Task: structure prediction
Amino acid sequence: MRAVLMAGGSGTRLRPLTCELPKPMVPILNRPIAEHIINLLKRNNITEIIATLHYLPDAIQDYFQDGNDFGVKIKYSVEEDQPLGTAGSIKNVERLLDEPFLVISGDSITDFDLTAAIAFHQSKQSKATIILTRVPNPIDFGVVITDKEQRIQRFLEKPSTSEVFSDTVNTGTYILNPEVLEYIPENEEFDFSQDLFPLLLAEDEPMYGYIAEGYWCDVGHLEVYREAQYDALYGKVKLDFAYEEKKRGVWMGGNTYIDATAKIQAPAMIGHNCRIGPNVIIEGGTVIGDNVTIGAGAELKRPIIWNGVMIGEEAQLTACTIARGTRIERRAQISEGSVIGQLSTVGEESQINNGVRVWPSKRIESGAILNMNLIWGSTAQRNLFGQRGVSGLANIDITPEFAVKLGAAYGSTLKPGSVVMVSRDQRSVSRMVSRSIIGGLMSVGVHVQNLQATAIPIARTMTSRLGVVGGIHVRIHPDRPDSLLIEFFNDQGINISKAKEKKIEGAYFKEDLRRVGIQDIGNMAYPANILDAYRNVFEAKLNVEAVRNSNSKIVIDYVYGVSGAILPDLLTKYGCDAVVLNASLRQTALSSHERETLLYQLGQVVEALKGNFGVQVSANGEQFILVDEGGIPIRGEQLTALMVNTILTANPRGTIVVPVHASSAVEQIARRHDGKIKRTKANPTALMEASQSIPSVVLGGSGDMGFIFPQLHSGFDAMFSIAKLLEMLTIQERSLAQIRAVLPKICHKSLTVRCPWKTKGALMRHFIESHSVENLELIDGVKIISHHNDNWVLILPDAGEPLVHLYANSEDREWVEQSLKIYRQQVQQFIDQEQGMIISV
Result:
């Protein structure tokens, strides 16, 4: 069997180590990753190899040449113009693949038994077999589900935290029959996980997953790179070492001198031609390359040192990575997690603090203390985006300097000269942060339309009408009054896709920020008549005559937080009596207790004034709670059902979009009106996208998130929802209390359990494997449906916190209570069991 070694990666997440070196050539135990893969292939009797190359191909070809020195035969295929994707690169060598072949990534470390995987492929008569493994945290990998026969049922490429449904992942190693290459177009970018495998699944081609035992590590991050070295030294993975084991746990190359006073703790590796001076201390876990010189009294605490490095006297290196040819001068200190690029110089008595990255060929002056990356900024957490945008504590996590860099990162993903809209709520902290974002955008040559303080539904509406490529809105987080939320829109006012979020994160963390000349700095403008434009769109989508004839009295509570008073003006214009409460701005956001107090007071006002209903508006104009004519609040699932009932009464056979966890009351209401319910993932972006893309949608959203009327715009809009509700109540000649009386009697309850991040994937897989497929729904999380469709339990991982949410739904309250109790116990038992296993290990 031949093997195709995919060795085209640039290793952007391993920078600064891969600025001048392809990722497969990064050394693990002083051998390139690709050499370890070739050794693995040899151990499994695979000696004919085709290497597909793109980034810096000469480095790989010069090292391996024809493969003869490594006991194999290697042919090369170089993608010179543009990368063709993982599958597209294989299509290029189709003429050399006339029998089943193995595809393996050149940037992972593994000791899998490939012979057993090949035998499995043959026994199943599979056309494509994916070698799988199980990992604690699967969000950076492609997640796969197989049936009892190990035939692949479903997979999802790099899920978000809320989408994790298994901990079984794609390792990037495949066994393929030549006929699958017919599905790959020529000279086009085509990916295995995103394109080929979904196509094979749709065509019902036999495709299986082989769950391999053994070690596997995708060397995708600098931290993982170090851990892979330590794992290899401590024998967690079977690799061929480059040197002789001179004493137990210490491997050493030839012509290396070690002073008699030096202390070396196992396990450790020291290369050829090294010189280690007096009183040097080398702790277990240290890897030293060839031609390295270490001065007297130096202390090495688990660093990874490449070839040709010089370390001065009394230098201290702790769990860091030092690339080729770097000079570390006397008494320099390099702290844990730091990376020094090749051919750099770290001056005498200088200090590199934790996690700092220095790009190649830089010089750190003597005595300098480096707290941030050279050249730009300091490192931060891996992911910027959460469930619905970028959030963090105001002026602690979300600072002006963070916002400038975030704006520059977003702008760097756009073409120079693009126009972006920026808006915010009325808080001073939001003004500060939005101005910083604008500065970052302008610095990369992006123009800004500044809407200033504007309710978010207005901002979403204007995005598509201002001709901008996207928008940013800054506001106090709806659920956390001490935090800010920064949301990014596309040109239609919908939250940007996960792919776009990843691009922004990539620009931010790689610090790949564009800089333009003075003449190309972006401009800022303040568009005029924004409220009038929104008002015109608003009125055009409303039955004005119905509102005019309602003679209604509405009490609107803005809870000191929503900018703009369009709705009261419009209602007054059409003869309605709009009473506004708490419309002034309070700089500090309200606590949940304060909001409840205001809601109670709103009910009293509605009763006293004999109003038709009251409404409490929040989340900068997105969300609301109703109060009926008797002063009783309508919120959550009851509000969802009420809105669905009202809209479907006016639009029979319409389609409603709701999140996966919404009560089954919506299906019962839809059946009464011959309507359709479409459930989506439990995040705002999924609801917005579905509301825009699915034909005949008349309403989207839920009582907790807000409601979308796609004919107006694809975002949540409390103001239009209230006006539309008033229109429907007038036409249907009903009150809120009358509608509530005819809603289905569904018991819908939820609870939350703390769950470690590393356990979420395994937990989801556990519930999938312990229930039959016909009783499962995997839109988001795992929904387990009982014999009656209205009886279900949903286990949903939280996207931003180490939590799992449990929802139970039924017409039978006792069934709900019992089910929640049972599944809570099962979840907790599984978590305790997994934690016990981790502790015992």
Observations:
- The two ends are 38 Å apart (CA to CA).
- The first strand starts at residue 2 and ends at 6.
- The mean pLDDT is 90.
- The CA atoms of residues 670 and 676 lie 6 Å apart.
